[in-house]
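Hi all, long-time lurker, first post. I run a small reading group and we've been trying to get comfortable going from sequence to structure in the token notation. Rather than ask abstract questions, I figured I'd post a concrete chain and ask someone more experienced to write out its structure so we can walk through it together at our next meeting. Sequence below, copied exactly:
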Amino acid sequence: MAVVLVDAGGTNIGSVRYALQRLGVDAALTSDAQTIRAADKVILPGVGAAAPGMARLRELDLVELMRSLTQPVLGVCLGMQLLCEHSEESDTACLGLIPATVHRFAEAPELRVPHMGWNRLKVTASHPLLKGLDEQSWAYFVHSYAVPVGDYSLAVADYGGEFSTVIARGNFHGMQFHPERSATVGATLLKNFLEL
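-- Answer (accepted) --
Happy to help. Here is the structure in token form:
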């Protein structure tokens, strides 16, 4: 099985690659369109901001390619947000694959932004990506922006209100948390993605 990590400049690429290696998969890091198109599975990792992330995809001439992929695609953290239509972060037009606008968490005395740390995942839809998750599933988050809950949401978490933590629409999937830092839960979800 050929799995590729899209080299869009995300700082978590190394840790995602290592998490995949622990599952027995050596994912190629690439920005080559032909390699990406030929892969069985495509992962778009990302840490940072929406505008530079999209600028990097445009610079590499990968925007239309990403939109045209038919194999299972997984966006991780910022990569998940880039799958959406728009991000409030720097008023950024994204890939437009998920009908959602990414919003910044509202500042509040009891809520620090960015949202950092462990949070419980609440499964809201049945999907093979979530196989093995239960009500005791926790994941590790680091983010200031979030995807609202919609018909694409498979799991949510609460941080001053519910937001999407796992999404899917057609062959496009996303995880807002860091599966590579989420212990058994993260490994399970990555394994489920590889089995889609």
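A couple of things your group might point at:
The chain has a mean pLDDT of 95.
The domain at 3-194 is CATH 3.40.50.880 (Rossmann fold).
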